């Protein structure tokens, strides 16, 4: 039989307290995820007025639920959280509270701040290489458009043979296209441009 002094009793009490904390964390986490989804839906293009009103009401309800869950969480003996801090999280990765879950995430290497920063930089480099490939294609598109635009305007002016105000328009467009040609030349000379 267990007594309040027995190690098994103390371990079960500690587990019950930790379980209450984990339950509060999971509830708060679920509400934050719900709010993030509602916020992402609110920013979608083509959302109707009725849908925007519905999403706005859902965000308001979710915010009040987060307030109540946060009050419950802050009653527990763990680091306190401020409502404005929790609401300012834009991604789940910023939700530092998840480190206190039942899986001892604090001990994981990927939970360390330096490792997270390094991982973010690594993925930014990967994305930047992909972006460079896309930009190489778009540079060719711009070059083709500028060349075509110059030729089209020249032929239009020659057809009209009244080069008064049209000639002035051509001079302005030609100047802008010359600037584009100059910038494109600089891009072509960049190391790594393919």
Number of strands: 0
In what range is the share of β-strand residues?
Answer: under 5%
| Main sheet specs | none
Helix content: over 70%
* SSE pattern, N- to C-terminal: HHHHH
Radius of gyration of CA atoms, rounded to a whole number: 30 Å
- Assign the structural class, choosing from mainly alpha, mainly beta, alpha/beta, alpha+beta, or little secondary structure: mainly alpha
The low-pLDDT segments are: none
Shape type: elongated
Distance between the termini: 77 Å
Count, helices: 5
Mean of the pLDDT scores? Answer: 77
Q: What can you see in these coordinates?
A:
The protein starts with 6 loop residues before the first helix and ends in a 6-residue tail after the last helix. Helix 1 (7-42) runs antiparallel to helix 2 (49-74). It is built from 5 helices and no strands. It is mostly helical and 194 residues long.
Features:
194 residues
Q: Summed up, what is this model?
A:
The chain is mainly alpha-helical and 194 residues long. The chain is built from five helices and no strands.
List the helices and strands and how they pair.
Elements: H1 7-42, H2 49-74, H3 83-87, H4 113-160, H5 165-188
Helix pairs in contact: 1-2, 4-5
